[in-house]
# Entry
Amino acid sequence: MRPERSLPALDRAALLLQLVPYLIGKGEVSVAEAAAEFDVPPAQMRAMVERLTVIGLPGERGFWQLPNELFDIDWDLLEREDVIAMTNTVGLERSPRLTAREAAALLAGLQLARTLPGVADNEFVAGLLAKLSRGAASAPPAVIVAPGPVDGVRDVVDRALRARVAVTFTYRAPGAGPTTRTVDPIKVHISTGQWYLQGWCHLRQAVRTFHLDRVSDPTLTDIPALHGADPVPELFAPTDDDVVARFRFPREVAPLLADYLERADIADDDEASVASLRLADEQSLKRLAARRGGEVELLEPEGARRAAADWAAAGLAQYTD
Amino acid sequence: MPATTSRNAPEERLVNLVVALMATDQGLTKETILSSVAGYREQHEAGASKDALEKMFERDKENLRGLGIPIETIGERADPDDLREARYRIPTAEYALPADITFSPAEIALLNIAGDVWGSESLSADARSGLRKIRALGIAVDEPIIGYAPRIRVRDSSFPAFQRAIEECRVATFTYLRPGEARPRERRIRPLALVEYEARWHVFGFDLTMDADRTFLLSRVIGEVSLTREKFAPDLRQGAGERALAGLREVADRQRALLEVHPGTEAALRLARRALPAPQGVVVPYVDLHVFADELASYGPEVRVVDPPALRAEVVRRLEATLALHGGAA
# Structure
């Protein structure tokens, strides 16, 4: 659930229009469950339901509405058991069409979801895309997500996930030699085109995250994945790494550094910003410095500065022919 | 009872209006609405000015239309342009999700994943709201698809503005900095589609200055995007997404770099899925010279650009600048 926020009246009206068909479909539903479905705190859900009961058909000239011309709920049930049940409706029984924007958000999401191995064939997805477009109030803006290249590693990991067995592969961690890992797969994360496997590593006896580009020669085992439902941390959870690094960059470059800045403290000086963040390894920032060629200056630690200079020099040495 | 319940909250008035306009077949006149629909009626009876109430009704009507609610205006038969006696209604068939659209449990399971991909607040709220409407159709839920958490991130602040411009078919202007050009330039386009390609967002549209289709990287848009009053025909959007994607693929097909990559390195891992074998080294297609040069420079000594010379020069320039900035002798 999201933190409490105050919605504009129009958004609250949109929620009420969705609430009626939802409550009718449910018959009886607890305040807590309805609140979770609508991403609002339970107190707000109660208030929404109470508000609904003063809404209804227009009164005849000169008269206020009769009770059967208003939405109504079972008040006893709400008071005693915190359960919502509608007892009278005066319209709005069917879900409104999707707005163009809602349809666009789902359509784009589907394009990413369809790249998951074995989830759906093209015909299935095409049918679903057509239904969504038809269910929209107006043509949704085209928001397209291009599928990335597929590969065998993803398929093997997928088969292991489904069969709930461990998978064995060769892993090349940054700056380390290859190791052979046996992993109970728990979750595959896909973020900015990169695939990551979170799983319980038999070698480390703990949950670890593996970048699938660093995985090779995967094979299915027949070892049951006993840790396959273990809780996993956020993909890029803050770490307690001990190297504190600082780098300086022009403010307009900030969007290009978002991956780093998300977990950094940022201070602004006159023309530039300085980010401080914790890293596992002082060597890792040299790649960022070279990528942004002259825009990002590593300030600390000294080892990172030196590494960036050496990295660039070694790269340049290849071209002095 | 919570203090938030007050008799005249604006959302009550809006929902009352929707209920009233859906309950009528022949439509209600403005006069009837203002004197009978709760929310207007109290103010009407309290003596609010007709002008103020009419303005409120106009605003409510536009706001509800913005939610996709089809409010029809039925003009006088004798003079359809005379809106004084116009009647308003909401045809149920156009308001509600069509009755013949149903979703199977497997489809709902996939939609649940699709609705969960957005990292950004506003798109994620849109997706979840759409999903709620579908789920309210009351379909038994399939086994959820477990084990996957796909995410799409939108970090470009210009994304929502372009999305709105596309939705409303409005010409947009913005400042765009092409690498290699000394100063940013104003662009005026009919935005037609937003495309994520290789994890970067692009807007595809018709550039009114260049008089041709163009694709822009959102990360190079500087400052705010302005939506002008100038509109374009919605049918220009037809098939734009596919055209944009085909265009990007065609560019990638045409632009190929010949690289020497040191085996076993980070560069080898990262490039492997995109690389095509070549007699010497590997060939990697790319869409944007500068974006690719950024990536290749990050690999430092792990990769050497053989061809094309322009790419090689850009990589060398980045490495030289990095070396100079970090106190090395260039």
